[in-house]
Amino acid sequence: MSKMNKRDTIPILFFLAAGLIVLIQMVRLPVGTFRQPGTAFFPILLTILLLLLTVVLLIGSLRRKVVEQGSLFGEYPKKIIPALGGLVLYGLLLTYLGFLLSTTLVLILYSRLAQCSWKAALTISVVCSVLSYFFFRGYLKSPLPQGILPF
After folding, report:
1. How many helices (H) and strands (E) does the chain have?
2. Which residue ranges in the chain fall short of pLDDT 50?
3. What would the pLDDT profile of 72-109 be if each residue is shown by its tens digit?
């Protein structure tokens, strides 16, 4: 087996740990079924997908030889921790702040990490959060955490 690239493996393990923490937090919410999804149904599916992709990255990192030019994460490894922090924070605050506020805050964080202006970050975050809220509530009839908002 070749030497693993520590610059890749350490962030991947961090992703794995963050995904597991979020999954543990999400199973505390009502999951429901495929026909009647609960509050945590889709976040759990997305977290499981994140974990599966992280395992694939980990296996690839462990099998790949060390490359001197850089790492899998390119020139932005310092953005990984805030991105993962946002994911963990989202899982922790979802029941307290509710779907709309939690989703908007995390999307603002991700938009700013992608170097969007504040105006663009706010616009993207609010539009995506509201559209996803109406998709889940209106179309899928899925209950979402209300949090501190009256709706």
Report:
1. 5, 0
2. 1-4, 67-69
3. 555 556 777 788 788 888 888 888 899 999 999 998 98
Q: How far is CA 115 from CA 11, 30, 107, 118, 148, in A?
A: 21, 35, 12, 9, 29
Asked, for residue 69, whether it belongs to a domain, the answer is yes
Q: Answer whether residue 130 is part of any domain.
A: yes
Cβ atoms < 10 Å from Cβ of 125: 21
Comparing CA positions, the residue from 86, 130, 135 lying closest to residue 111 is 86
In the block, tokens 């030019």 appear at 69
Domain that holds residue 80: 6-139
Does residue 146 sit within a domain? no
How many domains are contained in the chain? 1
